[in-house]
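Thread: quick sanity check before group meeting

JM: Hey all, I'm pulling together slides for Thursday and realized we never actually wrote out the predicted structure for the chain we discussed last week. Dropping the sequence here so it's in one place. If anyone has concerns about the input, flag it before I start.
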Amino acid sequence: MIDVGSLAPFTPKTLNGDSVYYEILRWAAGQVKGVPGFTCEIGLRQGGGTESIVQGSIDALDPRVHVAIDPYGDIEYGM
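JM (edit): ok, ran it. Output follows.
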């Protein structure tokens, strides 16, 4: 179990986001340091998760390819 309270709050700086799980994504991206492969995200919506994952890799000094798949293309997001 992840102690979310111990994670530094992270808010995407350049891309929009609407989730409360950015800290977990950033933490998890850093945990795969040294494991061969890439990260992949399906459904990037506003891009906040993408930025969190990439920043987590950078923070861990483990730059890697991140593939973001947007299955909805340019469909407007309605609230």
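AS: nice. The first strand starts at residue 39 and ends at 42. The chain has two helices and two strands.
JM: adding both to the slides.
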